[in-house]
Amino acid sequence: MSLSPSSFRTVAFAFGLFAFLALPAKAEMPAQTAQTQASDISDPFEYVNRGVFEFNRFLDEIALKPLAAWYGLLPDRAREGTHNFVGNLKTPWTAVNDLAQGEPSRFGNTFARFFINTFLGFFGAFDPAAQMGFPAHEEDAGQTFATWGVGEGPYIMLPVFGPSNLRDTVGFAVDSFLDPVNYIARHNDAQWVGPTRSAVGGVDARHRNWQQIEDLQRQSTDFYATIRRVYTERRRAAIANRAGGDAIPVPRMTDAEDAPVSAPRAEIPR
Question: 165 pairs with which residues across the strands?
Answer without folding.
Answer: 155
